[in-house]
Design goal:
The protein has 403 residues and is an alpha/beta fold. The protein has 13 helices and 13 strands.
């Protein structure tokens, strides 16, 4: 007698559709010989972006020093480079002991929540969100409570709604700025109001800043840590996006604010870091060079730069469309595109994404993948060349015109 092996109940409600059914169908089509334009994920190397040469050389030259486990928090030069970045931003109460290096920010999101949450604790997460945050809260026994960042508010947080969601079970608030998936960049006033709420209710602030500095035109990136004085702040960053080194799998979280009142929590996080021994050592040697060297990202985000021009191609594609609308992204490498439901009353993001894939061989991420209660948005990355993006929007228009 054979017995069916079932999924753990802990996975119920956990979603990551960016690499889900649609992505699997795209993979199957590629195996059948079709060329798929993958607009669904922010993977710079897939589109020809290169990691800065100085980072590659730093890793290669230090390979002989990378064969043993390192300290569970990471190598000292990498952690000290993160400290220096924080000091340049005006955050002075941090040392290398407050920095944890992980296998990408993804691992650190899981570890920081696992060290914090008890069953039933709540974490405030933006909607739309990067779905790993919601999944990690769920997997660690918590409840993800989504505060709205609605399109009618330019995808900025609804501060009144946010305040109304705080309960005696709320432990933390997540801020994603610049935002994935919307590209919204929060003003200093909005961030100060969010921090004030966190400090009033003694909530940990988790600030996901993996796209720090990736802003366009007159948008300004404001780091959260310098605004936080009366609670704990964990700032997440990494090499994947700004430095185009996704495969290095190097991220960090640095704690500031009331570190002296969070020793028990930080010891718990250190224990979890020890249990996985350490993160990828070779990639860590790129951190010091990345943070202290020439910031080549600036060449990509100014007019004439590749990211800037690809973003402009998305804007033009939407402007030329009869059916689409867009709140222009101020930052990150994504655009959250909306469909006009007056012209397309039966539009469904999942159905559209599948039809676009099957008929036009373009893969996008449905908006409902990002924990929103509406189904007329989808996310695209701005990483392809501008001419490819222009072609993609022509293909979209053919599908939309047939609905």
């Amino acid at each position: 007698m054979t017995i069916e092996i079932n999924t753990s109940e802990n996975l119920h409600g956990v979603r990551y559709e960016i690499r889900g059914q649609l992505a699997q169908r795209a993979h199957d089509m590629e195996r059948q010989g079709h060329e798929i334009i993958s607009m669904n994920i922010g993977n710079p190397g897939l589109f020809g972006f290169r990691t800065p040469e100085t980072m590659r050389m730093a890793m290669i030259e230090n390979l002989p020093s990378s064969e043993a486990y390192c300290h569970q928090k990471g190598i000292f030069p990498a952690r000290e480079a993160v400290v220096m970045q924080q000091q340049e931003r005006g955050v002075m109460n941090v040392t290398a002991e407050h920095v944890f290096i992980g296998n990408g920010v993804s691992e650190l999101i899981d570890l920081t929540l696992r060290a914090l949450l008890n069953d039933g604790d709540e974490v405030l997460i933006p909607s739309p969100d990067y779905p790993l945050w919601t999944a990690a809260v769920t997997l660690n026994g918590g409840g993800a409570v989504h505060y709205p960042c609605p399109p009618e508010n330019q995808f900025q947080p609804d501060l009144d709604a946010l305040a109304s969601l705080i309960t005696d079970r709320t432990r933390a608030i997540v801020i994603i700025n610049p935002n994935n998936p919307t590209g919204a960049v929060y003003s200093r006033e909005v961030l100060e109001a969010m921090v004030a709420l966190a400090e009033k209710h003694n909530l940990v602030v988790f600030s996901d800043e993996i796209y720090d500095g990736m802003v366009y035109d007159d948008a300004e990136f404001i780091p959260v840590a310098p605004l936080v004085h009366h609670t704990l702040c964990g700032t997440f960053g990494g090499l994947s996006k700004v430095y185009r080194a996704c495969g290095f799998r190097v991220g960090w979280v640095v704690f500031s604010g009331t570190n002296e009142l969070a020793q028990d929590y930080l010891h718990g996080l250190d224990l979890l870091a020890s249990l996985r021994l350490c993160s990828n050592v070779p990639g860590q040697w790129g951190v010091q060079t990345a943070l202290g060297g020439y910031q080549s990202l600036k060449d990509l985000i100014r007019p004439g730069g590749r990211l800037y021009e690809s973003r402009r191609a998305v804007i033009r594609g939407v402007e030329a469309s009869e059916y689409l609308n867009l709140i222009v992204p101020g930052g990150s490498m994504y655009a959250f595109v909306g469909a006009d439901t007056d012209k397309l009353p039966n539009f469904d993001d999942q159905n559209f994404a599948m039809e676009l894939l099957e008929t036009e061989h373009v893969l996008v991420a449905p908006g409902s993948s990002f924990n929103v209660n509406y189904r007329n948005y989808f996310r695209v990355t701005i990483l392809p060349q501008a001419k490819v993006i222009a072609d993609v929007f022509e293909r979209m228009e053919r599908v939309l015109g047939g609905q």
